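User: Show me an example of a complex going from sequences to structure tokens.

Assistant: Sure. Here are the input components:
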Amino acid sequence: MSSIDWIILFGTLLTIVAYGAWKTRGSKTIEGYLKGDNTMKWWMIGVSIMATQASAITFLSTPGQAIEDGMRFIQIYFGLPVAMVILSVTLVPIYYRLKVYTAYEYLESRFDLKTRTLAAFYFLILRGLSAGITLFAPAIILSAILDWSLYFTTVLIGVLVIIYVTTGGTRAVSLTQRYQMTVIMTGMLAAGFIAYSLIPDHVSFGDTVALAGELGKFNLVNVEFNLNDRYNIWSGLIGGTFLSLAYFGTDQSQVARYLGGRSLAESRMGLMFNGLLKIPMQFIILFIGVMVFVFFQFHKPPVYYNHNLIERARDVAPEAIAELEASYDVLYEEKAATVEKLVQGIQQEDVGTVSAAKSGYFEIAEKERNIRNGVKEVIADAIPGAKTQDQDFIFLNFVVNNLPRGVVGLLLAVMFSAAMSSMASELNALASTTTVDLYKRSIRKEASPGHYVLASRLFTVMWALFAMLFAILASFAENLIQFVNIVGSLFYGTLLGIFVTAFYLKWVRGTAVFIAAIIAEVLVFYCHYFTDIAFLWYIFVGCFSVIVGSIVIQALKIKN
Amino acid sequence: MHESEEGRPPVFKSWNTWYWLVLGLFVLQVIIYYFITSAFL
């Protein structure tokens, strides 16, 4: 990286952190610290919601997903607009009417203290672990790309976030997210345009799109119903709606974003903003991935995208790696010739040539995949315990090796900004739930406003240290990422079930839903450890178990 | 819930118009994506 890249990277990050901390300093009341004195306009809420959901792994992983698997990943967002409308009509007005700080306060006014505490406890477990992974996932990739130690990257992101979140609370989170999203979208669009501009001149934009389409990258919608296929319109609409309802309606890291609005109307508009723009934003990110895919058809990509890992493996098994790279080089020449034939066929609208070139391409792609798998096997043998999946490294590998000076620094700022914006919301939500739902409600009921602001700041630091420690220890446990990915599904169903019962089953009381929520969680854990049910279905199991369990227990109580 | 309690939405008179706009544009996107997918099958 050149010095201009370092200046842009650190200049961007430090400016945003310093401006956010300075501009929002001096919150003295819990209202100001946790709800930003209700000053946020609808577009700020919308940006904040989107910045919270889009973590660094979204921008690192999604283009790689498009390159390897096409654009079908977009279907998982199909339930989101539906959920935005449902929440605007149902939960958001209730939160406003009750003037709550956290989503779980509503549960005490509807049920009782123990149900509120249980829901807050479930949230703290799931979000605490997720904050760790929000930090760990980009830290491990950025460390490998920048040749930094994982400890340094983790501590750098963690400390920068602590500075402005402890200073300005919710308002600092929202303010910095505006600038972080601007950096993120500018950087991603620049990467997309540059990837396209590096494609040879004889391939027009129309040819580029047609080439990507012929090679299967525009698989946006699959209408076939298949429970084993994670990405189809049905799982997106049904599973996605449930997931979005739980995430945006019951997860404090999102609820806090719209509770800081000036009014109910501003909060609702923030959700409408997200409902309108989220899918197009994901489309753009995936499309940028497709542009990078086409770029790699005309410029030889590395046989393995995690440069750091393959070089370590080369030290142990140089001959095996060299042999595979030689085969890969020969195959790439063959592939480049086939791609040229395909482009000619597209330009001449010659169906026969296109069809023949496509068949040839897919045969070569299969051989290429075998070589790549061979490299992964050599790495796994050479470095025991190494994580050989390299899909998440594709986009940053493209950035570091192909983009001009300055833009590389900007794209790295994008990844750090995304990591910081998500983590800031998570820490803010963890601190507010710990303060409001546990500390203020059950431990220290009467204290000055300044005391609770100080407590919130200390809880923010405590959760940040927990996330940093988790991120550092996570590297020693191989299956932890997979484990944490399913943590959300383990708890969201039960949380959603509690809220649905609260909202629609007015005759059900606190004790019934409390017992049902514990039974539901046991059932979800049973499904996880003793059945083969895919984890996306845990949300249904948890949600319906709470609803049915509450009805049965309440009915038995009434009967007795 | 009464409109005064909800707060008036910007641009349109009713929140329902906003909701139908969000859902309508979502359906339109899915239709466009479906046709893009079909074009290369």
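The lines above are the inputs; the final block is the predicted structure for all two components together. Chain A has 22 helices and no strands.
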